[in-house]
Amino acid sequence: xxxxxxxxxxxxxxxxxxxxxxxxxxxxxxxxxxxxxxxxxxxxxxxxxxxxxxxxxxxxxxxxxxxxxxxxxxxxxxxxxxxxxxxxxxxxxxxxxxxxxxxxxxxxxxxxxxxxxxxxxxxxxxxxxxxxxxxxxxxxxxxxxxxxxxxxxxxxxxxxxxxxxxxxxxxxxxxxxxxxxxxxxxxxxxxxxxxxxxxxxxxxxxxxxxxxxxxxxxxxxxxxxxxxxxxxxxxxxxxxxxxxxxxxxxxxxxxxxxxxxxxxxxxxxxxxxxxxxxxxxxxxxxxxxxxxxxxxxxxxxxxxxxxxxxxxxxxxxxxxxxxxxxxxxxxxxxxxxxxxxxxxxxxxxxxxxxxxxxxxxxxxxxxxxxxxxxxxxxxxxxxxxxxxxxxxxxxxxxxxxxxxxxxxxxxxxxxxxxxxxxxxx
Length: 425
What we know:
Strand order of the largest sheet: 2-9-8-7-6-3-4-5
Distance between the termini: 11 Å
CATH class of the largest domain: Alpha Beta
Radius of gyration: 23 Å
Shape: globular
Structural class: alpha/beta
Number of domains: 2
CATH architecture of the largest domain: 3-Layer(aba) Sandwich
Mean pLDDT: 97
CATH topology of the largest domain: Aspartate Aminotransferase, domain 2
Helix content: 40-55%
């Protein structure tokens, strides 16, 4: 490093530090931590309130106010089928949270087995899951809660690195599952390619017994653009390959209607559903069918669903544009960061220089901009390169997102310059 270069770095650090002090004086309180719908988005579903007008009877004559119906209403199954692109016969309808269903299915597979008692993962010693990274922190929490060891595989622009996935499965019979967010992956926004979907469908042929892919299709209808990329059907792919039992699909209306009062779905083979329902029947007499029928009357078919999602996109698009414009304006053509440009979902994934993510998040927090903790997108909260930061712009207003991104850009630059200066010492 030439002396004049060191001087320039210190001058830049001084300039950025002054900008940062100005930001501190604003005493901001902005939150980019979680991918929740904004209040404006929640308003889109206000018609749910009172939609039944006293008519609680489902199409098959079920009085939805009463007990029973472990599987869910037939029309609610069809709603799940419309969201996931599967057959209604393969759908079970739960409460408001697909995360709850994922935990319940994983717990059932671990403790009781989805096939029979002998198939329970607990019988097989150490149990491992493949986790594409960066990934969804709550998936990792389920594994930690159940004592399942997590093995990371890299995410690529077409989905998980399938060479790494297949090699790991062939080499280690203790791998019993894999997490997937196949469309607008959390947090990268990647849509799995047709080849990736096909190769995942074939994993059941090379994996050990009782292997399951947890296909969390949380953003299947959450497009931000017209002519959005299409995700190949994992159900059709498993049927072609004779591996239908190897994949369980999940989705919900949590980011479609009211996030805390939605409906969740699991789609699976008849064998998997039978195994899950055996355990589920010990836990509940039935789900909230009144909420199910409210949703089916609000979203009676696929066209109504997609028209509703277009309204969401109109609210979300300016927020994502604000994030992407800020990143491009500050970092395009530099080595200070790399990011995906998602056309759907709820997140923008940003990679700092190695070793700068935690410091960027810390600086932003002190400046009044909350970000998801650095490392959250990796198992056990440990990003080995300390690079990845997940940005969730849905809740703040557009002007607030613009303001928050000004802070973010300054913090990335300041952390990067200080790291470079420290390396000179």
